[in-house]
Amino acid sequence: MSDLQNIIKILEGNGEIEQVVFPSKESLPITSIFSNSRECNPGSLFCCIQGEKHDGHVFAADAVQRGAIALLCKRPLEINVPQIIVKDVRWVMGYAAAIVYDCPSEHLAMYGVTGTNGKSTSSYMMRSVLQASGEKSGLMGTIVYSDGDVEEEASRTTPESCDVQRYLARMVRNECKSATMEVSSHGAVQGRLNGCFFSGMIFTNLTPEHLDYHGDMEHYFMAKKSIFEKYVSHDWCGAINGDDEYGKRLLYEYKDHCLSYGLCSCAGHDVYPTWLEMGLSGLQMDVRLPTGKSLELNLPVTGRFNVYNALGVIALAYGVGINMPTIKRGLETMPQVPGRVEKYFFENGVCAVVDYAHTPDALQNVLSAMREICKGRLISVFGHGGERYHGNRPLLGQVASENADVVVVTMDNPRSEDPAQIAEEIEKGFTSSLLEHYRILNRQEAVGTALSMARPGDMVVISGKGPEHYILLQDKRIPYNDSETIKEWGMKQGLRWQ
User: Fold this and answer.
1) Beta partners for residue 461, in sequence order
2) Average pLDDT over residues 83-104
3) CA dihedral 308, 314, 318, 319 (to 10 degrees)
4) How far is residue 177's CA from residue 85's CA, in Å, rounded to a whole number?
């Protein structure tokens, strides 16, 4: 909690305020801060964000009616409560929220994971390592937000900055000593990270995604780079994928703070595997550390991309001083990450895999990893989200046609787009006219058809949605989940699974 006058004083000192309207002469304690008027309560500060679809200024009166006692605005409003006028409400909101919630990131060891692919799994791995050291640790990312006591389904990778600060404050209240957070490029550009300072940061990779927002790969990279420029503490430590071309650029810029990791020992990485073996149940590897010592690991995850995820976590954990036994214990006991190579072994010899892979690079990773351990045919079921980068659609089709034996194109989250048009754009990327493929837009039917056609030894990879519990179609949010669909199919067939 903070006093409104104190918030104004600090923001003025930072040059953020343009004007204060209806200033209060009396002390006004601010207990909370929100950008959604429906969440406001007595004593809160309401932030009038101008979004793509809605203008928060329209909801200011409703916020005040619900108890908001002050507003953060872009323009003065005819509402008789104190109003802090700033140029960019969304940008300033994070700093204001940090003041309201007593700068929670300063009371936590903050570890971030950024990149196109691997953020969720790496975050789960890092939190498992931190918990293995005996400390309570929070988590914020694409799948869940956890304050150390309670987990809730995530609404987006990086929430609005006022929500970020509130969750961090909950972690502090629950006696968490650390927090692991997925850090998105949108979050960096839109100021959702303002008020956060990270002790450590992992960079996984950068491949084409969100180009409908960033425009091109260079702007996408610069958004990621800004995280390392603006949101790290003075003595931060980084773990950078040195096999990635953009990772190499970051290593050149921040070599004094970062350890490099990768698969090739001849590339001069600080952390790399000297021996590696992958199977359907997991992977084993020996990892060389900067000291020259090796860490022997037996992990419950598989796939070459998960080797990279583990290496990044090992490099960061080592860099911030976590000992080898703790790193080993944390990684070997990590929980199943929902919707990330989530496997179902049926008693008829068929294996179903659910994965969030929704970019060409991610689909290539999961299909090639499953190809290495699949004994029969590889069947790929996927679609692509509407209102997302169209250039990825034929590339997804190309990847599937080159890596799978059978392809089933279906619906993902079409939003306002025509699902059939999205499917057609995917199919334009098929590289073989002999490919066995099907278009089944009903996703539940598509999954059931793929599983029914599978024979003993076959593997059905259902990708794109991972742990999501809905399909976004037009203005509807239709209940749906890939894992539940797989289980329902198994029960209808009278098949047990593990």
Assistant:
1) 353, 380
2) 97
3) 30
4) 35
Q: What is the pTM of this model?
A: 0.91
Token pair 């593997």 is found at 459
1, pLDDT greater than 80: no
Residue 111, CB half-sphere, CA atoms under 13 Å: how many? 32
Domains of the chain: 2-100 (3.40.1390.10), 104-332 (3.40.1190.10), 342-493 (3.90.190.20)
> Residue for token digits 């000992």?
323
For residues 462 and 482, is the Cβ–Cβ distance under 8 A?
A: yes
Measured CA to CA, the distance from residue 176 to residue 201 in angstroms comes to: 19
Convert the pLDDT of each residue in 440-454 to its tens digit.
999 999 999 999 999
In the predicted model, is pLDDT for residue 264 greater than 90? Answer: no
Are 161 and 90 in contact by the 8 Å Cβ rule? The answer is yes
pLDDT value at residue 371: 94
- The torsion of the CA quartet 364, 367, 371, 376, rounded to 10 degrees, works out to -150
| pLDDT at res. 51 | 79
Q: Is 308 helix (H, G, I), strand (E, B) or coil?
A: helix
